[in-house]
Specification:
two-stranded antiparallel sheet; alpha/beta
Length: about 300
């Protein structure tokens, strides 16, 4: 049976961004798995709204960073300012010191500034003035980018894409939900009315429970067969890293917990593999970032499921 807090969180977010149950579910699974989420889609389909709604439905501290080409790393992690009274430098934390950080249009800033997020996303800490500062817990980066408009953008390198547990797209809503969205209040007006339904302590408990989800050897072998297959497929130039396998296991555990189980089944891995592995692969004939997801789906179908 699904956890009551998860049901309430899903319902609250879906009251704002309607008709996107799968995308909302994947965002919650990423949060439960202590991962970071990349949402890539055309403008105006609700990428920013989804991030806002998820943060507002919890009592987590939220910060939005609108990335631009002239941003500096200090605009993200913070800066040390000299205090003439104490005659010491004082650190002023940047927006990354929040529980949920929206990195809006992340590919609009320079690689130098993008890399400032790397340590934060991977290690949950930053190094500043020879000091290591731990980020708050829970911590999650939700980044968005537009796949159509490339003018003035800096595509994320593979090393940075590998830091995201999952990449999803929203797509256009179906006609009925789009009609309601056009006729009703805007997404941001609905967000203002949203009240927190889950506390930070609730999220931390659910993350610990997701970590404790059991995995049998046969299911673990199934996961590894998929990872190894990405390294030998003729259509792929660069397969999944070990970090990709670790993320797939954590995401599968979080998905099992999301659905109310304390053990992984092969369907958890089968369902999540395209979103967790797709953005980590480099195809020999790549046309679009989601072509790799189709290759992963095709590959997963060819690997026997343990019974």
């Amino acid at each position: 049976m699904q956890n009551t807090f998860i049901k309430q969180l899903q319902t609250a977010v879906e009251s704002v961004i309607r008709g996107k149950s799968e995308a909302v579910a994947m965002a919650i699974v990423t949060l439960l798995g202590r991962g970071n989420l990349l949402i890539e889609d055309v403008p105006g389909v609700g990428k920013t709204t989804l991030a806002y709604a998820l943060a507002k439905a919890t009592d987590c501290a939220f910060q939005r960073i609108q990335f631009t080409s002239d941003m500096m790393p200090s605009d993200i992690i913070g800066v040390s300012i000299f205090n003439p009274e104490s005659r010491e430098f004082e650190f002023k934390p940047g927006p990354v010191f929040a529980n949920i950080v929206l990195a809006d249009e992340i590919n609009r800033t320079s690689p130098r500034t993008q890399s400032a997020l790397l340590e934060a996303m991977n290690e949950r800490k930053i190094t500043m003035d020879r000091r290591t500062l731990v980020l708050p817990d829970p911590f999650m980066v939700i980044a968005t980018q537009n796949p159509v408009e490339y003018h003035g953008t800096f595509p994320l390198p593979e090393s940075q894409l590998d830091r995201f547990m999952m990449q999803i797209r929203l797509g256009y809503p179906d006609p009925e939900h789009e009609k309601r969205a056009v006729a009703g209040l805007s997404g941001f007006a609905l967000i203002e009315k949203l009240a927190p339904v889950v506390t930070k302590a609730d999220i931390l408990k659910m993350q610990e429970a997701a970590d404790a989800v059991a995995v049998e050897d046969t299911v673990m072998d199934y996961l590894m067969k998929i990872i190894i297959a990405t390294r030998s497929d003729d259509r792929i130039r660069l397969g999944s890293s070990t970090r990709g396998a670790q993320f797939l296991l954590r995401a599968a555990k979080a998905h099992a917990y999301y659905t109310g189980r304390d053990f992984i089944v092969p369907d958890d891995i089968k369902r999540l593999a395209p979103s967790v592995l797709g953005h980590r692969l480099i195809l020999k004939t790549r046309r679009g970032i989601f072509d790799a997801e189709d290759v992963v789906r095709d590959m997963v179908e060819s690997i026997p499921v343990p019974v």
